[in-house]
Amino acid sequence: MSKIPHSYAFLDLSDYGRPVARIIAVRLKDTTITPLHVTFLFIVSGLLAIGCILKGYYLAATFFLILKSTLDAADGELARVKQTPSYTGRYSDSIADIVLNFMIFIVLGHITDTSIIWTMLAFFGMQLQGTLYNYYYVILRNRHNGDTTSRIFETGKPIAMAGERQRDVDLLFGCYKVLYGGFDRIIYYLDRSASVKGRLPSWLMTAVSTFGLGFQLLVISIMLVVGWANAIIPFFIFFSVFIFLFIGIRKSL
Length: 253
Hints:
The chain is an all-alpha fold and 253 residues long. The chain contains ten helices and no strands.
């Protein structure tokens, strides 16, 4: 099942793991394995990738980063095929992503002897890029009756869905707000009109999908394998300039 109706789909460069994720979800549909179990597996894969980067095993790191991206898609796919959407899964997924991203950049800074200031600036840029992609994508999904477990504005605590506890949702929502709230506010300030007017054509969404986490991890993987580890942190700092370009283009449509 897709997050968005087929007629509004676009080429998502960050979502290369989706075909395999769908196969995994279908195979697990009638098992006792839940989406949260799959989320746990992608956390393990991410931690293994971080360990491999630290040890200099870059091909192995690439394998685990791509596996992580695939499993990251598979937990949502499994929730859709089992018809068990949940805010618990949605927030757990996002919290795990940002924590793993932070750890990845700390390790990248360590192996390249990059200062903590530049390392954190690159991490901040990466997260801000991802926030813009998610902001536009969630707007598109909500406009066209797509998956709605992600909300355009994560303000008040959501009401727990069937099968999950409100206490768990409240706790995870609080963690999400602490970790993502600043990024969400910045992107909303830069393009607050996107949610109420303006077009999000497929070609623009494809361009913005280079900000998606799957594509970002693929870039990191490629740069590690070809021996450009020292260029990863500068790349993400520089690539953040395109945030303003993409927002400018959207506002002009």
